[in-house]
Design the sequence.
């Protein structure tokens, strides 16, 4: 009866296929893919300078000149990740390779990329850039910090309000284009989720794995540590740090990561306690395999799946935490962020729906997408649900 | 004799992930009043689904019955609506299940559960009457001190007692038909014998009919007047049990009966005559266990101080000679698995001595133990959990070789691994597959191949055939004998199946409550048991010898 179900694919491939079964999860991945695209190519999607122009027969790409270190690093990482994905080596080696080359690029970019210290966006509206043979502008021809106060009668402008310069999502009180800010803000949303969860995952797996495998006194001490970290209110800690050390995105990532690992540790501990008694782990012990092999080859891959579920919810939580902080006006100052945009919507004298709807919708969609993915993962991994119904 | 239940041309199709499975395909049988009909077959043959179809317990959306009628007292159960079937269920047809642990609600007392069942079917019954009836039912199933047990929770009872409570609950409403789905499979043989005896007695007292589902032909021989053999949803042979069991007509029934360990041809007899010479030539036993104790502390109180010990293995001394198969027999919880694991140092022993080839194992560090691991390996019971689902068979087999420096390079090890697969009668290409692509029997073979990968002298086989169907079990047993002959292996074969012991082993060791109560040549222990426990154990085994 069951023989026909036998197929030739690895466990990971099977989970992946089952995860992608549903409609909702496809939407979730599509939205995340869109965000990644927006985050990586932000300077090419929304900028005040031409992508490519020809003046007096000389072809130039002003946008490249103004790429920041961060822009270069993000772009390079994106292509690196694509290449690493193609390599037919083990996952661990791929990650290691990626991390090493990513660090190298960061160093190189810091040394060699020297964008102009000051960008005056009005320059791009002077004849030097406008009276040309031909030019290709980005789809959204406004940089996120290109404040058009001097151009228009008032700063706030609803979508399609004025003829001449179309702002698809309107402008904020300083006259900057909301869509452009949204596109650039996707970087913060993505990076805070991934990096904060990455830090939490790293600590959680190590602490939880040690607790689960060694149990006994190690487990007892580890659990007390977990309980201590569970009692730290992340938001208030963030507020305190912002008050004392100023605003920094990286500090936020680290704090969210360092306080958020306890749940992962609990998950890994439970899995390892269970896996320790599994016959194949016992067989590995009986074969005299070394401890790292038992831990990382025989136990971790079998225990990591439920973790992915909680990670995807964790990413959503980190995004929300950042949005909350920015909404309270304690987020990053120099770069646009969805939470900060919501804050602006509320603070201005009149309620401007376009300032609330678009960033709010983006936060909602992103958290929703991660939750959909997490739920699909959970359903794919749970053997009790296999074969019953479709995915999310 | 009038028929209580008549099943005609029953088909049950199950919908599973867009595919339709013909779980029951054109099955017809009937059960006379007061008699027992046994459905036998291997796992997945559709016997449980047939029974669930009769009582209509299959989920509506999943199961459908394209054809068939189930006549119970002349009434077609398939045509009844929900309230109609509910009136029949429980009061006229009752069911008991395999796992007594999960069939009872853990948060209600057993008395409450039986009383509730009674009052649902007899709404006018007063509380006092219901309690009295419950008490009677508990006495009927011979639970000792039934009145005191009324307020017990399921976890306070043993497995056998729980199954008795289940029977009491099923019989409280005096059903005409009792459906029993493998009611004794999860129980030890001695308990099984008691439960079967009880069920026969209750049948005599009440005159009910039984539809009894089992995979064990020994149980069939004890219980059934009528028997039906199922294969892949079809009923291949039906008849009086004496006819079917002793003069089977269908080839499948013949195969099944021939695969029973007690009926397997014994090539082992030829070998046992060679064994004494080997023993004589090699007088020191391969494995020497002296005064081995494995005690687990019971901790209580705030400071977790040890109040007592569970003496899983208590003062066991045992010699296992080179080249012999020693069977370790006992009921669940007697410490046989713990002993097997303690020998391999998977469970740290409390005290005692274990020597393999004269080398002491106890007290060695993990590093010192590593070279010793080559000599001794283990194969497990559960085919589901014995292989790492994330690793290719190739990795599972070659990784230990690499650690122990077997084979000069990976190509050589892969060649060795494919030879191993061939020696357990599997295809070489199976190296490049994942465990979930195999059936239970194939996985057990791979588990054996892994145990053989280090070319050990000694293997602990922990119930390796218990989770398998009889025909697959027969193949694995024959394979084991072959391998033993080729490699001069020494086996400690842990099992609870006496038939397997008689077929396979040279020596038998009987364990009871952590101690060895009897040991000796298999023929002697199984033929003329001396210890009262061994005698009880052997007499409880349902046998069917052709």
Sequence:
């Amino acid at each position: 009866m069951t023989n026909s179900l036998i197929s030739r694919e690895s466990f990971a491939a099977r989970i992946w296929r089952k995860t992608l079964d549903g409609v909702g999860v496809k939407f979730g991945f599509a939205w995340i893919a869109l965000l990644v695209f927006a985050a990586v190519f932000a300077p090419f999607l929304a900028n005040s300078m031409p992508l490519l122009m020809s003046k007096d027969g000389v072809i130039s790409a002003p946008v490249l000149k103004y790429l920041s270190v961060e822009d270069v690093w993000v772009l390079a990482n994106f292509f690196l990740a694509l290449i690493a994905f193609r390599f037919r080596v083990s996952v661990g080696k791929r990650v290691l390779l990626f991390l090493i080359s990513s660090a190298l690029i960061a160093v190189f970019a810091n040394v060699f990329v020297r964008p102009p210290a000051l960008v005056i966006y009005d320059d791009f509206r002077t004849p030097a850039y406008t009276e040309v043979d031909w030019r290709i502008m980005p789809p959204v021809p406004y940089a996120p910090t290109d404040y058009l106060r001097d151009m228009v009668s008032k700063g706030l402008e609803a979508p399609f309000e004025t003829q001449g310069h179309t702002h698809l999502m309107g402008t904020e009180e300083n006259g900057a284009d909301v869509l452009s800010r949204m596109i650039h803000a996707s970087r913060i949303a993505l990076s805070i989720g991934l990096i904060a969860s990455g830090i939490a995952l790293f600590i959680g797996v190590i602490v939880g794995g040690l607790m689960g495998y060694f149990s006994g006194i190690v487990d007892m001490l580890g659990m007390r540590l977990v309980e201590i970290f569970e009692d730290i209110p992340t938001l208030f800690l963030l507020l305190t740090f912002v008050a004392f050390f100023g605003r920094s995105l990286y500090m936020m990532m680290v704090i969210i990561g360092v306080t958020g690992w306890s749940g992962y540790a609990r998950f890994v501990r439970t899995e390892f306690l269970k896996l320790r008694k599994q016959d194949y782990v016992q067989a590995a012990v009986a074969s005299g395999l070394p401890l790292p092999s038992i831990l990382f080859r025989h136990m971790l891959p079998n225990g990591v799946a439920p973790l992915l579920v909680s990670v995807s919810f964790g990413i959503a939580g980190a995004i929300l935490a950042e949005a909350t902080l920015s909404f309270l006006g304690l987020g990053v100052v120099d770069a646009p962020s969805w939470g900060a945009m919501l804050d602006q919507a509320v603070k201005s004298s009149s309620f401007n729906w376009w300032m609330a709807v678009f960033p709010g919708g983006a936060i909602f969609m992103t958290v929703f997408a991660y939750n959909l993915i997490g739920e699909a993962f959970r359903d794919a991994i749970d053997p009790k649900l296999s074969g019953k119904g479709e995915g999310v | 004799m009038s028929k209580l239940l008549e099943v005609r041309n029953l088909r049950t199709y199950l919908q599973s992930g867009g595919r339709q499975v013909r779980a029951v395909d054109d099955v017809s049988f009937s059960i006379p009043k007061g008699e027992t009909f046994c459905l036998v077959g291997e796992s997945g043959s559709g016997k449980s689904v047939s029974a669930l179809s009769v009582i209509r317990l299959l989920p509506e959306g999943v199961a459908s019955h394209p054809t068939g009628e189930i006549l119970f007292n002349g009434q077609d159960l398939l045509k009844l609506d929900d309230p109609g079937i509910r009136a029949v269920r429980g009061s006229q047809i009752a069911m008991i299940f395999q796992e007594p642990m999960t069939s009872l609600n853990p948060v209600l007392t057993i008395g409450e559960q039986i009383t509730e069942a009674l009052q649902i079917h007899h709404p006018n019954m007063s509380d006092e009457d219901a309690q009295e009836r419950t008490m009677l039912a508990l006495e009927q199933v011979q639970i000792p001190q039934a009145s005191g047990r009324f307020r017990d929770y399921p976890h306070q009872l043993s497995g056998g007692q729980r199954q008795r409570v289940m029977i009491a609950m099923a019989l409280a409403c005096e059903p005409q038909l009792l459906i029993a789905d493998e009611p004794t499979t999860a129980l030890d043989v001695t308990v099984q014998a008691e439960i079967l005896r009880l069920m026969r007695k209750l049948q005599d007292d009440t005159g009910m009919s039984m539809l009894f589902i089992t995979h064990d032909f020994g149980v069939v021989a004890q219980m059934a007047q009528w028997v039906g053999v199922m294969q892949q949803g079809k009923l291949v042979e039906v008849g009086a049990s004496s006819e079917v069991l002793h003069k089977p007509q269908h080839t499948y029934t013949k195969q099944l009966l021939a695969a029973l360990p007690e009926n397997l041809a014994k090539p082992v007899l030829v070998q046992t005559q060679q064994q004494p010479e080997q023993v004589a030539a090699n007088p020191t036993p391969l494995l020497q266990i002296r005064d081995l104790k494995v005690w687990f502390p019971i901790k209580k109180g705030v400071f977790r101080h040890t109040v007592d010990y569970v003496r899983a293995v208590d003062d066991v001394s045992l010699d296992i000679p080179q080249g012999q198969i020693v069977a370790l027999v006992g009921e669940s919880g007697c410490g046989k698995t713990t002993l097997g694991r303690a020998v391999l140092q998977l469970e740290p022993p409390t005290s005692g001595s274990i020597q393999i080839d004269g080398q002491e194992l106890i007290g060695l560090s993990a590093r010192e133990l590593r070279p010793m691991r080559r000599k001794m390996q283990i194969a497990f019971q559960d085919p589901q959990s014995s292989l790492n689902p994330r690793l290719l068979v190739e990795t599972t087999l070659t990784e230990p070789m690499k650690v122990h420096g077997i084979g000069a390079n990976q190509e050589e090890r892969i060649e060795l691994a494919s030879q191993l697969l061939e020696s357990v009668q599997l295809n070489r290409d199976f190296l490049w597959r994942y465990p979930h692509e195999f059936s239970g029997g194939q996985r057990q073979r791979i588990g054996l191949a892994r145990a053989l990968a280090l070319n050990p002298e000694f293997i602990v086989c922990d119930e390796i055939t218990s989770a398998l169907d009889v025909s697959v079990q027969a193949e694995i047993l024959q394979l084991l004998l072959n391998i033993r002959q080729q490699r001069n292996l020494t086996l400690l074969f842990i099992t609870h199946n006496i038939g397997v012991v008689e077929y396979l082993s040279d020596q038998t060791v009987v364990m009871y409550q952590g101690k060895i109560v009897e040991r000796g040549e298999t023929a002697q222990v199984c033929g003329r048991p001396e210890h009262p426990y061994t005698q009880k154990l052997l007499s409880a085994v349902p046998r069917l010898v052709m």
In short: Residues 189-206 of chain B form the longest helix (18 residues). The first strand of chain B starts at residue 3 and ends at 16.
